[in-house]
Amino acid sequence: MVLRREPTARQVRLGVELRRLREAAGLTAREAAALLGTGRVQMSHIESGLTGVSEERLRRLASHYSCTETDFVDALVAMATDRTRGWWEEYRGLLPTPFLDLAELDHHSSFRQEVAILFVPGLLQTENYARAVFSSRVPELTDTELELRIRHRMTRSAVIGDSSSIPYNVVIHEAALRIQVGDRATTRAQLARLLELSDADHIALRIIPFDLEGFARASSTMMYMGGPLPKLDTVVRDAPHGSVFIDSEAQLSAYRTRFRKVEAVSLAPDRSRDFIHRLAKEL
């Protein structure tokens, strides 16, 4: 079987979950491979996402691993047999892989939760705001690279564009609203965009004002994406070298708690809209 040159984050995640099941069962990769009549190297490729696994083989492994969580196994089968080629595939080879992985994660998520401290979240950005963000990147992007990133971001933002979209709870710190990444007109237009989106039934937008007490211990920039089951959720964090995808159960639990704390001390959606209105009038 031909190996994948660059597996997607979703393909890697499937392999990670199969490895976790094997390790929980106390089996080595060689022992698990023998159950399928294959070799240790092939099992390593499956668990690293470099090659796929059929539904029959996946269910056989789950049985040997004594996994009795039917919903979980079904979710893994759905990941293994999914053949979706979404709009993001047109950017393969043109943008770094994490851009495509994030769009694919958007497509399969059941809900979104996000905390932003210094910048308006990508899904909520206007084109001019996104242009200002990407233009400040070091090293500087070429004109072609810049336009590709902007086009990708604007296409990706369509996932929150209608009432059929999944729930999106987002908390934005006042700092992100006041930092002018572009000119004053860009900031005004971005605030207007936030007000427009905050009227959508599936979007709950909350603000953390500078003078709100009880925020320091709960702060954490993050994007939390819901999976078909809580144990298949994913947290995305930005890092200097690109996006980091977090999926261990212990860390997922910690980030769930962090989001609840941030949400608890933020302004309610109606008060947040009033806050953005007042801020817009100051500009």
Would you kindly provide a written description of the structure presented here, covering whatever features stand out?
The protein is an alpha/beta fold. 49% of the residues lie in helices and 11% in strands. It has a six-stranded mixed β-sheet, sandwiched between helices. β5 and β6 (242-246) form a beta hairpin. α4 runs antiparallel to α5 (70-81) and α10 runs antiparallel to α12. The chain starts with 8 loop residues before the first helix and ends with a helix.
Overview in brief:
By secondary structure, this protein is an alpha/beta fold. The protein is about 50% helix and about 10% strand.
Order of helices and strands: HHHHHHEHHEHHEEEEHH
Mean pLDDT, rounded to whole units?
A: 93
What is the overall shape? globular
Enumerate the strands of the largest sheet in spatial order, edge to edge or round the barrel.
3-2-1-4-5-6
Strand fraction band? 5-15%
pLDDT < 50 stretches: none
Structural class comes to: alpha/beta
Termini separation comes to 60 Å
Helix content: 40-55%
Number of strands: 6
